[in-house]
Amino acid sequence: MFVWDLWYSAHWLITSAVDRGFEVVCGLRYNRIIWLLNQEGYIVEKLNVKELGELLNENDWLDLRLKGNDYRVASFEVVLKDVGHIRLLISRQWLPAKQKWSKCNYLMGTDLSMSPCEILSLYLLRWPIEAGHRFLKQKLALGTCRVRSQTGQESFLVLILLAASYLALCGCRDSALYTQSASPYRLIATYRTAFERAQITYVYTQAQHNVPLKEILEDLRLACT
Predict the structure, then answer these.
(1) What is the CATH number of domain 2-124?
(2) Among 193, 211, 195, residue whose Cα is nearest residue 203
(3) E strand or H helix at 24, and its extent?
(4) What distance in Å separates the CA atoms of residue 98 and residue 208, rounded to the nearest whole number?
(5) Backbone angles phi, psi at 222, to 5 degrees
(6) Which of 35, 128, 146, 184 could in theory staple to 79 by disulfide, Cβ–Cβ 3.0 to 4.6 A?
(7) What is the DSSP string of 52-100?
(8) Phi and psi for 145 in degrees, rounded to 5?
């Protein structure tokens, strides 16, 4: 299952996910073209999703309550241009501070059997996902990974999370480097730089005392294991 915002709802991205066996729940822009179907499944009208929302009356809405918020939703099976049959969901959220319903949001699901509650519940997971991506990129520097393979990126993520967890739990609590604004990645980079300098200093000191290179390399190997 893929869940993403309307900015990533390009038809080629949706069809690529479906062709690989994944279902998609995402937002749609108000101007996306759809075709309405009659009860027999035949196309009867072409319009955009905003125009469909403007045709709805009070009896077309279903009331839902999710995560402490009230919503009104209307669900349709339609044909989305360049994608095919989808489950279209038009939703509005009650805004207590303004005492009115929000503007329409347009969502879609590629699984036609999904209920309005399932589609909306999945889409509401989008913000925690985006917040997680922001943390990974800004605090753990996931964007600095130069590896392009999926396995390499997963390995990079695991290693950076392990190092960040170690620093957060024990390594950096007593360090002057640890502040609320310091990211785990910056701490990792700082500690790595300090470790490399210590190695250089160690090699230089040992060489001054005529220690054989083989012994120096052996000591460094043991220190890194």
Answers:
(1) 3.90.350.10
(2) 211
(3) strand 24-28
(4) 75
(5) -65, -35
(6) 35
(7) HHHH--GGG-EEEEETTEEEEEEEEEEEETTTEEEEEEEEEEEETTTTE
(8) -65, 125
Q: Does residue 163 have a pLDDT over 50?
A: yes
Q: Is 143 exposed, middle or buried (0-12, 13-18, 19+ CB in 10 A)?
A: exposed
Residue 105 binned pLDDT confidence (cut-offs 50, 70, 90): very high
Q: How far apart are the first and last CA of the chain?
A: 40
pTM: 0.64
Question: pLDDT tens-digit profile of 34-93?
Answer: 999 887 777 778 999 999 999 999 889 999 999 889 999 999 999 998 899 999 999 999
Burial of 183 (0-12, 13-18, 19+ CB in 10 A): middle
The length of the chain, given as a count of residues:
225
Non-local (6+) Cβ contacts of 133 within 8 A are none
132 backbone dihedrals φ, ψ, rounded to 5°: -65, -40
Backbone phi and psi for residue 74, each to the nearest 5 degrees, phi listed first? -135, 130
Contact residues for 87 (Cβ-Cβ < 8 A; gap 6+): 75, 76, 77, 108, 109, 110, 111, 112, 114, 119
Of 16-30, 49-63, 131-145, the poorest mean pLDDT is in 131-145
- For the chain, residues classed under CATH 3.90.350.10 are 2-124
SS3 113: coil
